[in-house]
Amino acid sequence: MSGPPILATRGLVKRFGGVAAVDGVDLVVNAGEIRCLIGPNGAGKSTLFKCLTHQHQPTSGHVLFEGRDLQGLATHRIARLGIAIKNQIPSIYANLDVRENIRLAGLRRGLEKRQLDRVVELTLDEIGFNERLASQPAATLSHAHRQWCELGMLLASSPRIALLDEPTAGMTREEMLKTVDIIKRLNASATVIVVEHDLEFIARLAQRVTVLHRGKVLVEDTMDKIEANEIVRDIYLGRKKEATHAER
Amino acid sequence: MMRQVKHALFPVALVLFAALGPFVLEPYDLVNLSAFSAMAIAALGLAFVWGTLGILNLGHSVFFGLGAYAYAIAVSNLGDSTLAVLIGIAMPVAFSLVLGYFLFFSRLGDVYLGVITLCVTLIFYSFMTSTADPSFHIGPVPLGGFNGITAVPSLNMPGDPQAFLSTEATFSICLLSLAGAYILLSFLRSSDAGRIMTAIRESELRSELLGYDIRFYKLVGFAVSAAIAGLGGALYTAVMGYVSPNVFDLPQASQFVLWVIAGGLGAFVGPVVASFGFQLLSSQLGANQVFNTELIFGATIILFVMLVPQGLQPMLLGLSSLKFPNRFGILRRKEKPA
Ligand SMILES: Nc1ncnc2c1ncn2[C@@H]1O[C@H](COP(=O)(O)OP(=O)(O)O)[C@@H](O)[C@H]1O
Ligand SMILES: [Mg+2]
């Protein structure tokens, strides 16, 4: 299995005024991977995701999807290529019921009606929503259920690659474990890049971890090695040291 | 099944009225109700584009007015009304595509969009009032400035310009057209395209991220609303026998908005009922000269926004089921990626 990686960036830069939120990122993700993206707050993880989907126009650099340069493509065109995203801030159709949310995600695939209905019910099953939850307006869901509703939309859209920005934020451990299961299902047919802080979550999912710091890739490795890495400990895992620095 | 029966109730009532009205009503009332129907058709266009797609078009009257003028000019030139009605639909559609292209592809905010469309209709108003000079004419038809175009032929049998339709037949056609517009828009709203439009109203960001080209859907919805408004304008002119620049003016523009608010944003039956109600009220008030009509309308719109923000139809449905959530309150803010 050779050919271009499913996603690659070359010297990707995004500036907001004088601040380079993403500062020359070269990222290579291979098909089928679950890649974890970690880094302290403000490292540029969310901005990187938004550049990949052209919610932000990159200041310079390139995004290659299966070797194809995405330059100039509108956000909806990128979505049509099979790049799905869950932003850090949840984005669902709050006033529509969950089933309609999922259906709208599947509808874009151009399936015939019966097949679409099947996809919707299957997806509801995969995110563990019973009939009562499925017919509820999305706005009335609990926080965790909203996250799952959005993950369900990604599942139903059958992407090639799914970008997940903090999908377990604010969840209990049990809810986090359920999210891990959903992401595994997503990974059955899609490459996944996920931003997370939860170490157990990362340990359960990720093969490789990329550490982002001040808009740059600091290091990329397996989780064991990352955890052992002194620099990473300093800037990310070793909050204590940071605190003592701050005191001085 | 029950739902389909419920949905069919309103158009069936309109069709019955179209069939039976001529037997029970005076010609004067038939003409009035024909004009009301034409206005109600145009209001449905706004109810659709605003309620389903979330585009607050404060200048919806521009499409109504273009349809009205296009009909007047075409029928006076051609003699036959059937083609003239089609031209009355096509003109505003063509204009909406051009205007919509600039509005949607420049990604203006919602408020700017409403203000710009309002300005556009007012520009048409001032232009049309300044066409009194005989040099402004299309074919033999002078545009007529403030007075507009008078002696516009009414509807005739398709293909036979000499056979003008009776008041009764015209009444039936107007009500059937209203029923037709209602059915068409209801089908569109519940179709896949309509559900995507609803989704775009709910969250543009989510829709884009799912791969929907929101500018395309907005343009299509805008053009549909223009077509419906144009049909209303053409029928209105055919019924009244004249058209004046007032079809573009501020009171006309605000009436469409008022009817949709009063009837319920997101609803279709409500705005139709509201448009009939307000036109009836206005013709009664206009007849006795005691009240200032504009004042009454102004007060009514404020009362509606304060007391029944979701509009008549959702409120009545809510009273009957007591669990219909206030999903379409006009003051509800659009979903923002908080
Ligand atoms: N829309 C924006 N305008 C200006 N600055 C921004 C914007 N979005 C993010 N930033 C800045 O870019 C940097 C990276 O932010 P972000 O990508 O959200 O980081 P992370 O997701 O890793 O916490 C931060 O300094 C943030 O303040
Ligand atoms: Mg972030």
UniProtKB/TrEMBL annotation, chain A:
<keyword id="KW-0813">Transport</keyword>
<keyword id="KW-0067">ATP-binding</keyword>
<protein>
    <submittedName>
        <fullName>ABC transporter ATP-binding protein</fullName>
    </submittedName>
</protein>
<dbReference type="InterPro" id="IPR051120">
    <property type="entry name" value="ABC_AA/LPS_Transport"/>
</dbReference>
<dbReference type="InterPro" id="IPR027417">
    <property type="entry name" value="P-loop_NTPase"/>
</dbReference>
<dbReference type="InterPro" id="IPR003593">
    <property type="entry name" value="AAA+_ATPase"/>
</dbReference>
<feature type="domain" description="ABC transporter">
    <location>
        <begin position="7"/>
        <end position="239"/>
    </location>
</feature>
<dbReference type="Pfam" id="PF00005">
    <property type="entry name" value="ABC_tran"/>
</dbReference>
<keyword id="KW-0547">Nucleotide-binding</keyword>
<dbReference type="InterPro" id="IPR003439">
    <property type="entry name" value="ABC_transporter-like_ATP-bd"/>
</dbReference>
<dbReference type="GO" id="GO:0005524">
    <property type="term" value="F:ATP binding"/>
</dbReference>
<comment type="function">
    <text>Involved in beta-(1--&gt;2)glucan export. Transmembrane domains (TMD) form a pore in the inner membrane and the ATP-binding domain (NBD) is responsible for energy generation.</text>
</comment>
TrEMBL record, chain B:
<feature type="transmembrane region" description="Helical">
    <location>
        <begin position="111"/>
        <end position="128"/>
    </location>
</feature>
<feature type="transmembrane region" description="Helical">
    <location>
        <begin position="35"/>
        <end position="55"/>
    </location>
</feature>
<feature type="transmembrane region" description="Helical">
    <location>
        <begin position="216"/>
        <end position="236"/>
    </location>
</feature>
<keyword id="KW-0472">Membrane</keyword>
<feature type="transmembrane region" description="Helical">
    <location>
        <begin position="62"/>
        <end position="79"/>
    </location>
</feature>
<keyword id="KW-1133">Transmembrane helix</keyword>
<feature type="transmembrane region" description="Helical">
    <location>
        <begin position="256"/>
        <end position="278"/>
    </location>
</feature>
<dbReference type="InterPro" id="IPR043428">
    <property type="entry name" value="LivM-like"/>
</dbReference>
<keyword id="KW-0812">Transmembrane</keyword>
<feature type="transmembrane region" description="Helical">
    <location>
        <begin position="85"/>
        <end position="104"/>
    </location>
</feature>
<feature type="transmembrane region" description="Helical">
    <location>
        <begin position="169"/>
        <end position="188"/>
    </location>
</feature>
<feature type="transmembrane region" description="Helical">
    <location>
        <begin position="290"/>
        <end position="312"/>
    </location>
</feature>
<protein>
    <submittedName>
        <fullName>ABC transporter permease</fullName>
    </submittedName>
</protein>
<keyword id="KW-1003">Cell membrane</keyword>
<dbReference type="InterPro" id="IPR001851">
    <property type="entry name" value="ABC_transp_permease"/>
</dbReference>
<dbReference type="Pfam" id="PF02653">
    <property type="entry name" value="BPD_transp_2"/>
</dbReference>
